[in-house]
Structure formats: C-alpha cells, structure tokens
Amino acid sequence: MANSDFLRKNKNQHSIKNSISKKMDGDIDVAVQKLLAYLRKKYPALTFEHKKKLSLTVIISDLAKQYPQYAKDFSTVMSKSFMKPDGGFLYATDKKGNKKLILVAEVKRQGTNDKRATEGLAKQAKGNAIERLGKNLTGVRAIFKKESMIPFVCFGSGHDFQNESTILDRVVTMNDFFPLNKVFIEKEHLPFEPVSLFFRYKDWSTKEMMKILTDVAEEAIAYHFS
Fold it and tell me: Which SUPFAM superfamilies match (predicted)?
C-alpha cells in the first residue's frame, strides 16, 4: 500500500474514533450535569462539587496519611500528573465540612471496524481503550482503599464489545472476574473488589447513564451521610 494511502486510511480511522469519542464525552457530561441538578434538589443539606481531574500527588499524599507505615515506600510522581476520567469526580460536603467522593465516572469507546466495513476499508487491530481504563481503575481502587465501597462507573460501547468478543473477557478480568452490566458499590466480596462496568456494542444514552449514576451516587450518599 502506498504510504499516502496508508496515511489517508489511518487518518480516516482516527477521525471516526475522535468524532464518536467526543460525542460520548459530551453525553457523559450531560448525564453528570443532570445528576448534579437532581442531587442538589433532593439533598439541600449537602453541597456538591464536580471536578474534572485529580492530581496523583494528592492521591499518594492521602494514601501516606491513611497508611503511614508505607509513606516512605510510595513513589514520587511529577506534580503535573493526574487522573482525568471522562465523567470526572463528584464530591459531596455536609454542613460540618465533611467532604466525600461519591462518584467517579468514565466512558470508553473501542472498535470502528463496523464503520470501516461500510466504507469498504480493511479491518484494524482492536484498540486500547480498556488498557487506559485499567490504569484509571487501579488509581480508583487506591483512592478508595480505606473505604468500604467504590462508587466507580464505566460505560463502554463499540464494535470490540459485541457479544462473544474476547475483548469483553479482558474487561471481566479487570473486574476481578465478576460480571459486567451490574452495579457493584459496597465491598461485599473481599478480597475481590468488583466495580460497575457497563459494556455493550450499542452506545449508552444520557438517560441510561444518568439512571445508573444516580443509583451509585445515592448509595454513596447514604453510606457517608446517613
């Protein structure tokens, strides 16, 4: 294949991925903003804050306070390194100033071979969106290491997540081999720590995402503030 043809087709592949990913990022933002409006109305005694990212130095500092016996063992990271899940971090604070992280939300889109087929293009190797999910999931589990719950939700969609795809097995592996498309919040299966991973071929609507995010956030609020 001529280099120019390869570049054109590769550019087309990334154009498809970028346009779909941007839509998903927008959808999760809409869902989180609607959730915020709902929570502020239902829980007037709490103040809610949505942050897009969390510094790794802050995470490590918190872990050092929680586990002082390991404080000298944690690695030093660059101050500009951070976690930035697509749906961000949602915090709730009560009137006494107790601030708790009640939701971390993520979306992942992987696989464009169905779109490429309609354009007569050859199949591409399966993507690495879930590898990026794995990195964030490791960080999230560290954040909630001292908690008895993990209010983390990830919505995944795309050709790579169709039924009987081996890529889905990778996601199951990340979830400590617990099932997908089910809400897991409280750590009821220790030493295993399954989380809420919702994966399928079809895209998730903002309505669907908001319902699941609401269930998780409200359970976290009950856990921390009841």
Answer: Restriction endonuclease-like
